[in-house]
Design goal:
By secondary structure, this protein is of the alpha/beta class. It contains 5 helices and 9 strands. Helix content is about 40%, strand content about 15%.
Length: about 200
């Protein structure tokens, strides 16, 4: 969030932040407040800058039609079409929420006083259209229907090629691992929202 909406290049945790909207500003202000508590009260803190995490909502009452891939799954179930607000060229770095829980728990117990900022990313990016195609394939199999993808070609985006090296994963994450986790969670999301 703090690096900007559409990012390019190699993004390290020391990179200058870019405030583009209130959402980004709220993250920035939260970081500054944490820094102040660290300085004023000698607290040992970690600030984790999270990539785009994904998961089937744990609580069935959670309804987040604004999050990828949940919104694509809901579109496929409700209208047999997946709607993209752009041409789908924009890229995002996705990480499984399960990994977020596991790795942050380890970070807390590690008690590292040297660093305070951490990028938590997979280091692998997917175009939004790639995610839509994964949902299309899985939804077609589960719903036994043909699912179309509709692009908004009036909103053409330059492909934002970037890498966010992770400060959290101890070894390189393979793209196939993220894709397998995406497929697994997408199936769960579809089954979850079919019965809502």
């Amino acid at each position: 969030q703090v690096y900007g909406k559409e990012i390019f290049g190699n993004i390290k945790s020391k990179k200058k932040i870019k405030i583009e909207n209130d959402y980004t500003k709220s993250h920035y202000l939260a970081e500054k407040m944490i820094e102040k508590y660290k300085k004023n009260y000698g607290l040992n803190v970690n600030i984790v800058r999270l990539a785009y995490s994904f998961s089937n909502p744990i609580d069935k009452k959670v309804y987040r039609p604004d999050l990828i891939p949940i919104n694509f799954c809901i579109d496929a179930i409700n209208s047999n079409e997946i709607f993209l607000n752009s041409d789908g060229n924009s890229r995002r770095d996705f990480i499984p929420l399960r990994d977020v829980f596991t790795k942050i728990s380890k970070l807390i117990t590690k008690n590292n006083k040297k660093d305070i900022y951490y990028n938590f990313s997979s280091g692998k990016t997917f175009k939004i259209i790639e995610i839509a195609k994964i949902v299309q394939k899985e939804a077609s199999k589960i719903l036994l229907k043909k699912i179309k993808i509709k692009l908004n070609l009036k909103n053409k985006l330059r492909e934002n090629k970037f890498t966010i090296p992770s400060d959290i994963y101890s070894k390189r994450v393979k793209k196939i691992y993220i894709e397998k986790r995406l497929r697994y969670e997408i199936k769960k999301i579809i089954f979850n929202y079919i019965y809502k």
